[in-house]
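In the design runs reported in the main text, the only information available to the sequence generator was the tokenized backbone. The following block is the verbatim input for one such run; it is reproduced so that readers can re-run the procedure and compare outputs position by position.
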């Protein structure tokens, strides 16, 4: 699977460079994304701007991957979803449980807001 990786100070942007995401590629993508939970900067933005079709339960796999990030207190934001993919996720009732933004810039903002939120909640727990 071809992906573009762009590492920033607080997060990494992963962009699959495939038009079609069948289940086997989505499983591979999920493993790649989950590996970031072991890194110094575990927060991820998944940019789906190149993906025009999801097959099978690929949407469910992405939603489960996102859930694992939040269970680990890490950010995972999906951005730039093309209309056919968005419609499919909406039909599968996954869109409403996913953290999705229209643009990568908005995804950056969410990751940074969640970072501030974690810092504030962390301070509350210590006091």
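Verbatim output:
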């Amino acid at each position: 699977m071809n992906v573009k990786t762009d590492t920033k100070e607080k997060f990494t942007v992963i962009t699959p460079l495939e038009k079609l995401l069948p289940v086997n590629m989505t499983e591979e993508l999920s493993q790649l994304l989950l590996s970031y939970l072991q890194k110094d900067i575990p927060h991820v933005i998944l940019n789906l701007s190149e993906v025009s079709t999801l097959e099978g339960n690929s949407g469910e796999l992405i939603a489960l991957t996102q859930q694992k990030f939040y269970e680990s207190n890490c950010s995972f934001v999906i951005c730039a979803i093309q209309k056919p993919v968005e419609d499919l996720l909406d039909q599968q009732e996954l869109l409403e449980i996913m953290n999705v933004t229209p643009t990568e810039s908005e995804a950056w903002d969410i990751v940074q807001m969640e970072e501030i939120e974690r810092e504030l909640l962390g301070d509350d727990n210590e006091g």
